[in-house]
Design a protein that fits this description.
This is site-specific DNA-methyltransferase (cytosine-N(4)-specific). The protein is built from 15 helices and 13 strands. It is an alpha/beta fold. It has 2 domains: about 220 residues, Vaccinia Virus protein VP39 (Rossmann fold, 3-Layer(aba) Sandwich), CATH 3.40.50; about 140 residues, no CATH class. Helix 5 runs antiparallel to helix 6.
């Protein structure tokens, strides 16, 4: 074994990173990818909850390409885009991409990461954005210290008590500079360049706030720590933007600029923007449960989207509510799911015996099933889908999402191809939860994933 952190074990021999494009046997891949770089290229532009390892996508694309099922130039679809892992990897392999997500920040991140930029324009945009910025932010501090107000700056819709001052005003100054540059920039890439800069501002926004590090749900620093929290906005933004430009400098030359990436701020339960029988392969990591109790994508995204992208508080507050199994979901619970999935039926029976959250589980899988139906519609007959799922607990009952996924897909007409179990060596996930919402009471949540590989119904 070498110390190459791009190493993967195929069969009994050690291979290097390029071999993921040469996979001919999915069972021969070490799917843990422990020690691999999951932040290479633009994957590392911005944190995001429960981010899928890019090597999963790379290996699956390589395998199906080698099987002659797909070829560069085909269309890859991700119904749960998140931070864009599938789109980025597909572009690196020469594919066109489409994706959906209900989270505005997910759309921002996916497009910023997946669309390559002309590097000369990117550096020029960076230079113009940073020119005189340090002086302007210093003036903001001086005005604030002098007790002045800032009537020329639109207040972001963030809640009181979540940001130090005058840092919040400084973030808004950077936001306004990006907006002005996007308006004045006389090239076809103005919107993409501005979006890319907003990603660095989003990350700076999160670091500037009183949000506790390592938490994706909204938890503030202790009051004493807030009093000592005095971040340098200019230094943080300059550092993030410079690092991101360097990552784009690695990514842009590695992809085909003639391919395309589209992301729709849309619900995959209807997938209205994706044409029937238009997709060659689907690779996706669905939410592990309703956003409120599992992974709070909306809570994580709220303030960064509001400050960096002028999204409204109401819109971002709604993200976790409209997700699969969310409190404002619109589909009626589908009782027949229990007939179609023995694993789900057994799970719901156990939850009911414990007076647990059986209704919540049924609502989640009703929504998930609607996405499966749309994937069956948009995929070309016989073509593959890979669902990367993690099992969680509800009311201390393990939810076998991988088995439920397989059985519900089979009800629609998908053919099961393979079930791949993988350990998660390092992934930002809740490893334990408090199922009864009792302080100090935790239960096992997620420590492994399964890749459920199916093929779409034949016509």
């Amino acid at each position: 074994m070498t110390d190459d952190h791009y190493q993967v074990t195929l069969g009994s021999t050690s291979r290097v990173r390029a071999d993921l494009h040469e996979v001919t046997d999915l069972d021969a891949v070490d799917w843990a990818f422990e020690g691999w770089d999951t932040h290479e290229y633009t994957h590392g532009l911005h944190p995001y909850p429960a981010r899928m390892a890019p090597q999963i996508v790379r290996a699956l694309l390589g395998y199906y390409e080698n099987q002659g099922v797909i070829a560069p130039g085909d269309l890859v679809y991700d119904p749960f885009s998140g931070s864009g892992t599938t789109s980025v990897e597909a572009r690196l392999a020469g594919y066109n991409t489409k994706a959906n997500d209900i989270n505005p920040l997910a759309k921002l991140l996916t497009l910023a990461k997946a669309r390559p930029l002309p590097l000369d324009q990117l550096t020029a945009f960076q230079d113009d954005l940073m020119d005189g910025l340090a002086v302007e932010l210093r003036e903001v501090r001086e005005r604030y210290d002098a007790g002045e107000s800032f009537p020329e700056i639109d207040d972001p819709e963030v809640r009181d008590g979540w940001y130090p001052q005058p840092q919040l005003w400084e973030l808004c100054v950077i936001r306004d500079r990006i907006d002005d540059l996007e308006t004045d920039w006389e090239t076809d890439h103005a919107a993409d360049l501005a979006r890319f800069a907003r990603v660095a501002l989003s990350k700076t926004t999160r670091k500037t706030s009183y949000q506790r590090n390592g938490e994706f749900k909204r938890y503030r620093l202790a009051e004493a720590d807030r009093e000592r929290h005095d971040p340098d906005v200019y230094e943080s933004f300059e550092s993030e933007l410079t690092a991101n430009v360097e990552k784009m400098g690695e990514y842009a030359p590695a992809v085909d600029h003639d391919c395309s990436s589209e992301v729709f701020l849309a619900d995959s339960r209807t997938a209205a923007d994706i044409e029937t029988n238009s997709v060659d392969i689907v690779i996706t990591s669905p939410p592990y449960g309703d956003h409120t109790t599992t992974v709070a994508y909306g809570q994580f995204s709220k303030d960064p989207a509001i400050v960096a992208w002028r999204r409204s508080y109401e819109e971002m507050q709604r993200v976790d509510k409209i997700g699969l199994g969310g409190s404002t979901r619109t589909l009626e619970p589908l009782e027949t799911l229990e007939q179609w999935s023995p694993a789900l039926a057994a799970t719901l029976e156990t939850l009911r015996e414990k007076e647990g959250r059986a209704d919540d589980a049924l609502e989640f899988f009703t929504d998930y099933y609607a996405v499966m139906e749309q994937v069956a519609r948009v995929l070309k007959p016989g073509n593959p889908v890979a669902w990367v799922v993690a099992n969680r607990t509800m009311s201390r009952v393990n939810i076998p999402t991988h088995l439920i996924t397989k059985e519900l897909c089979e009800q629609i007409g998908f053919d099961h191809q393979q079930l791949i179990a993988r350990e998660i060596p390092s992934k930002t996930l809740p490893w334990a939860n408090a199922p009864e919402n009792t302080p100090g009471v935790t239960g096992d949540l997620m420590a492994n994933e399964n890749i459920v590989v199916m093929t779409a119904p034949e016509e």
